[in-house]
Write a structure and sequence with these properties.
Chain lengths: 298, 578
């Protein structure tokens, strides 16, 4: 028997199909075995809870791996697509839970900026803990203090306060987007805990805070939601930040989604207390779902 | 024995029909209700009222108000399948009131079984027809592989369960094509083609593209016979099927749909207008949420590549390009032959099997056009894309047929070794079994959550989640968390089943899937418990829960390979007591 070598190529297509079929069958048999089971999560929960400390945060990789929140969802958990580029400056330590196929960590996790303190394989899960550089000290969080804010809108140049605080929101009108409130929304690809401040057609929207302590910097993040960025309207939204009635800075939010950081030095303004006002305006605010957050750091 | 041997194909077709039907019928209740099914259940029950009215008072039933009363509901789709569902409902549930919301004693899923029965029968028929088509085009083994690869594909098997129109129209499309093929040389089959097409358009509007496809086929295969000369214009013979379709199609379409019996043109106009101006629903595609046309033209090709089991995909693509290459004729073959020589092959494609063609010209174009046109239509950037591959499901029997032909071709290419056990038929059987194994394993793995199925190329469901593909649609995966809800939600609590419409919620309660004391809520903020289904466009639903609950804690979830599909949140523990 034995066929002529020059005809070997005739075997190739069938061999390819056989190879692909074997790979595919193997995929369905082997792949599910790699994933963690309930007992792995329970074991991971025990480890994390035992060593959890204030200033810790938990992230998962890949971002969609939600099951860990059945066990540890009551703790601070961040859901971010790229944890390497995430700003962890508010935290002391980061716990990272990973699934198979998502164990490559780069950036500050790999270059030594974040120190790996713990590494544990628990079945299909891998659990790491990193110590971060000394965390920033947040003196004032504007989102957290939103219930104390003075929110007002302008109608034909006349100031009109929004006085109804119901479930995390200052309601400014019966229209369901005209409010200032604590929300969680996608800015870019990740959910962010921000302040909803949709600009109004009648005039600027102002959110004022009194008794704000001084510090070294005032940081804000701004962004439009993906829906807003997709909408045909492309007018930029302007956020003006004033301290004690004087303009500190201005952000012109372009027509794109994301979570954009801006920071101003306020160390020269003294220890306070200060009054800080955020003014949101847009000449054509249709579907400009604009959000921001802010904090004073020491 | 002789009888069995001489009718072997018929018996195999019958076997495929029976096995497919029972697989669907028995597995049916495990597949949750899709949003559209909820509407169709409700519409069918409405229509069943009309059938009762026909028995009681025909004059009233046939009057315009009598028809409008029952058939105005869900007028955006023809009623053939819904009428069959209505008749099943009448037959098996003569008194609908007996199916009481508080009655927990009946077996779970009995309502679903009844309402889905027509589609299960039609889908089983489709598998049998595909086998017979493969037999008539090529051989029994080609037919068998085509039929099995079609029904074992995760998405196809899922759609075969649902009381919707996608699988029925696919089967009717296939039947029409089979009849049209026969009608090339038979007047009677021309009539049958007309009837089959009439039935197809009475199922779903996709079938309105069939005349275009047949027209193209006629032009391509017989176009050379057109001639203009002094003697006049010479037109090739027009297939009798065209006349059959022209006369019988509209007659069946209007005849089957009582709502069109009055104000016919106005109502047909409304129907077409609805589909020509259909809204677009957001769809996640490679990390981008597609919300408005123009959509990427690659969309249906990419989705097919990521949802058809890999061996079937590879074979289907080979068959697709193989037949196309052959049909495009000499120029392409010459190119391929030269390319083959460059790669070190002595001869080009075609000569290894003694120059045996894939298919003759008419069959080749017929199969190829049917595999291509439905996908091509969805590739037009303005065409709605929601629903994933179900919109071009009617192409898939032909893709599977091309896959079977490709496998046949590969086996035929093998050198004859003169060893009995290596006879082509055995090699084909062994390779086919191995090529179908991943489909079967994938099907078992995905279980009743077929709208989440992604193939090995995508990396399964986790791979698709990484790629940013639509994770599910139509809300049927809710059934994955209903047992937990039944066990853990306190009596009388309000439940928000995200994306599940009122009709499906009621159907779940009526059919014993969901406890009847649980109240339906329309908003997560008003609910005590929420079952959130991951959809990129609805992520704010989950974020609202995070904000409201002051926590990201999940109580329970349905996960496929750790990819969250449905997540249950408990809002009671975060709320002050009233």
């Amino acid at each position: 028997m034995g066929f002529p070598g020059r005809q070997a190529y005739r075997l190739f297509p069938l061999a390819l199909i056989l190879g692909v079929s074997l790979f595919s069958a193997g995929f369905w048999i082997v792949d599910p075995l790699l994933y963690p089971v309930v007992s792995d999560y329970q074991a991971a929960e025990q480890v994390v809870r035992k060593q959890w400390a204030p200033g810790d945060v938990l992230v998962v990789k890949p971002w969609w791996a939600a099951r860990i929140r059945e066990y540890l969802g009551d703790l601070p958990v961040l859901q971010v697509d790229e944890i390497e580029s995430e700003d962890f400056s508010r935290y002391q330590r980061v716990w990272v839970v990973t699934l198979p196929g998502h164990r490559d960590l780069g950036g500050r996790f790999a270059d030594g900026t974040y120190v790996r303190e713990l590494e544990r394989a628990i079945g299909g899960l891998e659990l790491w803990r990193f110590r971060l550089p000394a965390p920033a000290r947040v003196r004032y969080d504007f989102r957290e203090q939103l219930h104390t804010a003075l929110v007002r809108l302008y109608v034909g140049g006349t100031q009109k306060p929004c006085t109804k605080w119901i479930e995390d929101r200052w309601h400014c009108s019966p229209r369901d987007w005209e409010y200032v409130g604590r929300v969680v929304l996608d800015l870019g690809r990740d959910p962010r805990e921000v302040i909803w401040a949709h600009p109004l057609i009648t005039g600027p929207l102002e959110i004022g805070f009194n008794g704000v302590p001084g510090g070294k910097t005032l940081r804000v993040h701004t962004g439009l939601t993906p829906n807003a960025a997709r909408a045909p309207e492309d007018t930029p939204v302007t956020l003006t930040v004033s301290v004690g009635g004087r303009e500190l800075g201005r952000v012109v939010q372009p027509d794109e989604t994301g979570y954009f950081l801006y920071e101003w030095d306020i160390s020269h303004l003294g220890a306070g207390p200060h009054s800080v006002t955020f003014r949101v305006s847009c000449p054509r605010p249709h579907l400009r779902i604009f959000c921001f957050d802010g904090e004073i750091r020491r | 024995m002789k009888f069995i041997r001489s009718h072997a194909n018929g018996f195999i077709a019958l076997g495929l029909f029976v096995v497919t039907f029972f697989a669907l019928f028995l597995n049916g209740p495990s597949v949750g209700f899709t949003r559209d099914e909820g509407y169709y259940f409700s519409a069918s029950e409405h229509y069943s009222g009309w059938f009762r009215q026909v028995g009681k008072s025909p004059a009233q039933a046939f009057s315009e108000p009598g028809i409008r009363r029952y058939f105005e509901v869900n007028r955006e789709h023809p009623v053939l399948v819904k009428n069959l569902m209505a008749l099943c409902h009448l037959t098996f549930h003569p008194e609908p009131a007996r199916v009481n919301a508080k009655d927990q004693t009946h077996k779970i899923g009995s309502y679903a079984r009844v309402m889905r029965l027509p589609v299960h029968l039609i889908a089983a028929l489709g598998v049998a027809l595909l086998f017979l088509f493969g037999c008539s085009i090529a051989s029994r083994r080609v037919g068998l592989f085509a039929a099995l690869s079609f029904i074992l594909a995760g998405r196809h098997f899922y759609h075969a369960h649902l009381a919707c129109f996608d699988m029925p129209v696919t089967v009717c499309w296939l039947a029409t094509v089979m009849a049209y093929r026969k009608a090339q040389s038979s007047f009677a089959w021309g009539i049958v083609t007309g009837v089959a097409w009439g039935v197809a358009i009475a199922v779903k509007h996709n079938a309105f593209f069939l005349p275009v496809l047949f027209g193209l086929h006629w032009l391509i295969t017989l176009g050379r016979r057109f001639s203009f000369s002094r003697k006049g214009i010479k037109i090739p013979r027009i297939p009798t099927a065209f006349f059959g379709m022209l006369i019988l199609g509209p007659a069946i379409f209007i005849g089957h749909w009582p709502f069109l019996w009055h104000n016919t043109f106005e109502r047909i106009g409304w129907y077409f207008n609805f589909h020509l101006r259909h809204v677009h629903y957001p769809w996640e595609y490679f990390g981008t949420l597609l919300t408005e046309a123009p959509f990427p033209w690659l969309y249906p090709f990419a989705i097919t590549a990521l949802t058809l089991p890999l061996p079937t995909l590879l074979l289907g693509a080979t068959g697709f390009f193989g037949v196309l290459g052959e049909r495009l004729g000499h120029p392409l073959r010459t190119c391929l032959r030269r390319l083959g020589r460059l790669l070190g092959w002595r001869t080009g494609p075609g000569s290894e099997t003694g120059g045996r063609p894939w298919l003759d010209s008419s069959d080749g174009w017929l199969i190829w056009l049917n595999a291509f046109i439905p996908i091509f239509v969805v590739a037009i950037p303005s065409v709605p894309i929601f629903g994933g591959m179900k919109h071009w499901l009617n192409a898939m029997p032909f893709v599977c047929l091309l896959a079977a032909l490709a496998l046949d071709r590969f086996v035929a290419m093998l050198p004859d070794l003169g060893v009995r056990i290596l006879r082509p038929v055995y090699i084909y059987a062994a390779t086919a079994a191995l090529a179908l194994l991943p489909s079967l394993l994938g099907l078992i793995h995905i279980g009743p959550y077929g709208s989440s199925f992604y193939n090995e190329l995508a990396g399964g469901v986790p791979g698709a989640a990484d790629l940013g593909m639509q994770r599910q649609y139509w809300s049927n995966n809710t059934t994955g968390v209903l047992p937990w809800i039944n066990r853990n939600v306190p009596a009388g609590k309000r439940l928000y089943l995200h994306e599940v419409n009122g009709e499906c919620f009621r159907a779940y309660q009526r059919d014993g899937y969901l406890r009847s004391d649980i109240k339906m809520s329309w908003l997560p903020e008003h609910a005590d418990f929420t079952a959130y289904q991951y959809h990129r466009e609805f992520s704010n639903i989950e974020y609202r829960l995070w904000q409201e609950n002051r926590s990201k804690k999940i109580e329970h979830g349905l996960y496929i390979d750790e990819v969250p599909i449905v997540l249950v949140y408990d809002s009671t523990r975060h709320r002050p007591n009233p």
